[in-house]
């Protein structure tokens, strides 16, 4: 199922920095899940378009990163990605921001994304 992450550019930058710093600390199955998510759209975070108007708030533009991924024959959902972020945070004491993002993904990522 396709899901969309909605963040401003700074939060996306922080998310990617902590994820990249942690990916080699997680088990192979989780690395495969991260790679599938990365190849399924997460890699476009740096050039993500502005989200539709209904997702904009404040003065900082909200970007939309659309992810459609499959890992080990299973469609990756926003909850799968959130769980991955929690495991990544647990694997790297310097990546606590990932816990916050995981909670946020469960509550604010749009699934299914039709856009």
Count of individual helical segments: 4
What integer is the average pLDDT? 96
Spans of at least 5 consecutive residues whose pLDDT stays below 50 are: none
Q: How many separate domains make up the residues?
A: 1
The percentage of residues in β strands lies in: 5-15%
Report strand order across the widest sheet. Answer: 1-2
Return the structural class. alpha+beta
State the order of secondary-structure elements, H for helix, E for strand: EHHEEEHH
What is the terminal-to-terminal distance? Answer: 13 Å
Major sheet: size, sense and barrel closure?
2 strands, antiparallel
Descriptive keywords:
115 residues, alpha+beta, two-stranded antiparallel ribbon, two-stranded antiparallel sheet, 45% helix
Care to describe what's here?
This protein is of the alpha+beta class and 115 residues long. It has helices spanning 9-22, 28-39, 78-91, 97-108; strands spanning 3-8, 62-67, 70-71, 74-75. It has one domain (3-108). It contains 4 helices and 4 strands, in the order βααβββαα. The protein is globular. The mean pLDDT is 96.
């Amino acid at each position: 199922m396709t899901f969309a992450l909605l963040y401003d550019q700074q939060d996306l930058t922080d998310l990617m920095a902590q994820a990249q710093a942690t990916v080699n600390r997680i088990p192979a199955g989780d690395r495969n899940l991260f790679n599938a998510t990365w190849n399924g759209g997460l890699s476009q975070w740096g050039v993500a378009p502005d989200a539709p108007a209904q997702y904009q708030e404040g003065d900082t533009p909200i970007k939309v990163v659309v992810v459609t991924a499959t890992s080990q024959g299973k469609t990756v959902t926003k909850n799968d990605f959130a769980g991955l972020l929690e495991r990544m945070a647990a694997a790297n004491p310097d990546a606590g921001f990932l816990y916050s993002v995981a909670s946020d993904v469960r509550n604010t990522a749009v699934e299914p994304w039709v856009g």
